[in-house]
Specification:
heterodimer; A: 302 residues; mainly alpha; ABC transporter involved in vitamin B12 uptake, BtuC; flat; B: 283 residues; six-stranded mixed beta sheet; three-stranded antiparallel beta sheet; 11 strands; 26% strand; globular
C-alpha cells in the first residue's frame, strides 16, 4: 500500500512550495476556464477562444520584453483583442470566422516579433507553454481576483446570455441588450484565457477552456450540471497533470516534462471517456426500451 | 382599405397599428399600415414573401424604427420589454447538442431577461409544468430541446412565449418548416390557447388555407400595404387587386381559396411570388 502511494506521489510532492502554488493556480484557472468554456462551446466560439489565446501570447511576450509580469500582458492584450473582435463583427455569424482569423493572424505575428527580439532564455517556453512551476505566490492573488471577476460577470449575465445563445431574436424582443451581453461574455472569455495562459501557456490556453466543457456537455442535458461537471473534470486534469509533471522528474531523465502536455493529455482522455459514457448510456436506454417492448409483447401473447 | 371596414374597434383592442411606414435604405418596406387586433382574437397575417410581414412584426415588438405611425400594445406605446407580448421568431435553429431540456427553455421564457443565477423555486417549476401541459409537451419535457422534431420544438417555443402571460402572441411563419399534419396541430393548439387563455394570436403565413377555419380576422399584406377585416371581406378580387396594384383573381376551389395573377397583363415577377398554384393550371 505504502509502496503504491510512494509510487504515485514521488518524494516531497506535498512539501514542495512550488507545487502548492501550482496546485492553487491550476485549480483556480481550471474552474474559471471550465465555467467560461461551457458557454464558449454552446455559443460555438471555440475558435474565438483560441484566437484570444494567441492574442494573450502576444501580450505576454510583449509584457516580458518591456519588463512587466507576463500575466498583465496575457489579460490586458486579451481584453483589447476581445474588443477588436467585437468591432470586426465576431457576434455576427457570417463575419465571425473573419474577425477571429484576422485577430489571430495579427497576434501570432506580434508574438513572433516579441519573442525574437527577447533574447533571454526560456521566454518562448514560458509564454507559449506555461510557467506554472515558476509562478510566485504573489501571482496567486492576481489570479484569484481576476478569476473571481470573470466568474462574477458570467454569474450576473448567465440567463440573458443563455437566451441570447438560444435565440438572439427572442432575447432582443424581451428587451435584452444582446450586443452588450455578448461583449461582457467576450471580456470574461479574454480574462479566462489570459489566466489559462499562466497555467498551460498561451498556445494551449484553450485546452482547459474547451476540453472539460465539451466532455461535460456529452454527459448531461442541463447547463447547471454541465458547469459543475466541467469544473470537476478541469480541476482533476490540472491537478493530475501537475502531479505527473512532478513525478516525471523521477522517471529517469532527471528533467521535468512540460506540465501543459500532461494537462492536455488528461483533458483529452476525459473527453474520450465522456464519449464512451454517453454512448453506453444511450445503448443502455435502447436496451431498456427493447426489453420493455419484448415484455409487453409477451404480455399480449399471453 | 385599412381597418376602416372594421365595425366597432373597441377599447378592448390589444393591438392597434396606425399608419405605420418603414423605409430601409431608401426602399419602402411598409406603407401606411393600419389594423387592430381585439383581445383573444386569432388573426392571420397573410402575404407573399417580401410583403413586409416580418418587418411589421418587428415594428410591433419595438425592434424596428418606423418613419411614421404608432403601435399600441395593451394600451402602451412601447412594446419592447413589454411582458404583454409573447414572441416566437422565424426559423429558430436549436443545436441538437444544446444542453437544455424543453423544460429549461420554457423557464428561460419566464426569467431569461433577469440577471444573476436562477434560484430554483416551486412556483417557477409549477409555472413551467403548467405551460408544458397547455401545449401538450409533457411527453418530451425532459428531452434535449434541440433533438425534438420541428412540431415539438414549435410547441416548446410557444410555451416559452406564453409563460410571461402575454395578452398578444406573435408568431413569425410558425408553419413554414412543418409538414401538413404538424402544422394543423399547431394551428388548432393556437386556436385553443387564444380561446381558453384569452390571448390574441397574430400569426404570419404565406399560405392562408390551413388558417381559414380558425381565423377571426385577416391582415393581408402585399408590397408593403395591408388590408384587414374578416376573411370574407378581405379575400376578394377587387380588394387584393388594389393591394397588389394589379389585377388578381380569387378562386374558390373545394372550399380552398387561391389567389392567382389575373390575365389582364400584370407584373409577372410578383405573380410568381404570391400565386398559390401556377396561374397556367388555375385558369
Amino acid at each position: 500500500m505504502h509502496r503504491i502511494y510512494g509510487w504515485v506521489f514521488e518524494p516531497g510532492f506535498f512539501a514542495s512550495q512550488p507545487v502548492h502554488v501550482a496546485l492553487v493556480i491550476g485549480g483556480v484557472v481550471a474552474v474559471v476556464s471550465a465555467v467560461t468554456g461551457v458557454f464558449t462551446v454552446m455559443r460555438g466560439q471555440s475558435f474565438g477562444g483560441h484566437a484570444l489565446g494567441d492574442v494573450s501570447a502576444a501580450g505576454g511576450s510583449g509584457a516580458l520584453l518591456i519588463g512587466f509580469s507576463p500575466i498583465a500582458g496575457f489579460v490586458g492584450l486579451g481584453i483589447v483583442g476581445a474588443g477588436v473582435m467585437d468591432l470586426i463583427g465576431v457576434q455576427r455569424l457570417r463575419s465571425r470566422d473573419l474577425a477571429t482569423g484576422i485577430v489571430l493572424g495579427a497576434a501570432i505575428g506580434m508574438s513572433a516579433l516579441f519573442l525574437y527580439v527577447n533574447t533571454s532564455s526560456g521566454a518562448t517556453q514560458q509564454i507559449l507553454f506555461g510557467s506554472i512551476f515558476t509562478a510566485s505566490s504573489a501571482t496567486i492573488g492576481v489570479v484569484v481576483i481576476l478569476g473571481a471577476l470573470a466568474l462574477a460577470t458570467l454569474a450576473a449575465i448567465c440567463r440573458p446570455l443563455l437566451l441570447a445563445t438560444v435565440s438572439p431574436d427572442i432575447a432582443a424582443a424581451r428587451g435584452i441588450p444582446v450586443r452588450l451581453i455578448g461583449i461582457a461574455y467576450m471580456l470574461a472569455l479574454a480574462v479566462s484565457v489570459g489566466l489559462s495562459s499562466v497555467a498551460t501557456g498561451a498556445i494551449l490556453s484553450t485546452a482547459l477552456l474547451i476540453g472539460p466543457a465539451a466532455a461535460a456537455l456529452r454527459l448531461t442535458r442541463r447547463v447547471s450540471t454541465a458547469v459543475v461537471a466541467a469544473c470537476l473534470i478541469g480541476v482533476a486534469a490540472a491537478w493530475v497533470g501537475i502531479l505527473l509533471t512532478y513525478d516525471s522528474y523521477y522517471w529517469g531523465s532527471a528533467r521535468r516534462l512540460p506540465v501543459s502536455f500532461f494537462i492536455v493529455a488528461v483533458v483529452f482522455a476525459a473527453y474520450l471517456l465522456a464519449g464512451l459514457c454517453s454512448r453506453w448510456a444511450v445503448s443502455r436506454a435502447a436496451t431498456a426500451a427493447v426489453t420493455q417492448a419484448v415484455a409487453s409483447a409477451d404480455q399480449i401473447a399471453a | 382599405m385599412s381597418d376602416s371596414t372594421r365595425i366597432g374597434a373597441q377599447a378592448a383592442d390589444v393591438l392597434r397599428v396606425t399608419g405605420v411606414s418603414v423605409s430601409l435604405s431608401g426602399r419602402q418596406i411598409l406603407a401606411d399600415v393600419s389594423f387592430a387586433v381585439g383581445a383573444g382574437e386569432f388573426t392571420g397575417l397573410i402575404g407573399p414573401n417580401g410583403a413586409g410581414k416580418t418587418t411589421l412584426l418587428r415594428v410591433i415588438l419595438g425592434l424596428q424604427r418606423t418613419a411614421a405611425g404608432t403601435v399600441e400594445v395593451a394600451g402602451q406605446r412601447h412594446a419592447r420589454r413589454n411582458p404583454a407580448v409573447g414572441y416566437v421568431p422565424q426559423k429558430v435553429l436549436l443545436d441538437p447538442d444544446l444542453p437544455m431540456r424543453a423544460r429549461d427553455l420554457v423557464a428561460l421564457g419566464a426569467d431569461g431577461h433577469r440577471f444573476g443565477i436562477p434560484v430554483p423555486s416551486r412556483a417557477r417549476r409549477d409555472a413551467v409544468a403548467e405551460m408544458l401541459d397547455a401545449v401538450d409537451a409533457d411527453r418530451f419535457a425532459d428531452a434535449r430541446v434541440g433533438q425534438l422534431s420541428g412540431g415539438e420544438q414549435q410547441r416548446v417555443l410557444i410555451a416559452q412565449a406564453l409563460i410571461s402571460r402575454p395578452k398578444l402572441l406573435l408568431l413569425d411563419e410558425p408553419l413554414a418548416s412543418l409538414d401538413l399534419g404538424s402544422g394543423q396541430e399547431i394551428i388548432s393548439l393556437l386556436a385553443r390557447i387564444a380561446r381558453q387563455q384569452q390571448v390574441a394570436v397574430l400569426l404570419s403565413a404565406h399560405e392562408m388555407n390551413p388558417l381559414l377555419p380558425v381565423m377571426d380576422r385577416v391582415v393581408y399584406m402585399a408590397a408593403g400595404r395591408a388590408a384587414s377585416g374578416t376573411a370574407a371581406e378581405v379575400i376578394q378580387g377587387d380588394v387584393l387587386s388594389t393591394l397588389y396594384g394589379h389585377h388578381v383573381d380569387v378562386l374558390h376551389v373545394h372550399g380552398r381559396v387561391l389567389v392567382v395573377a389575373g390575365t389582364g397583363g400584370g407584373c409577372a415577377s410578383e405573380d410568381a411570388a404570391f400565386a398559390t398554384v401556377p396561374a397556367r393550371e388555375a385558369s
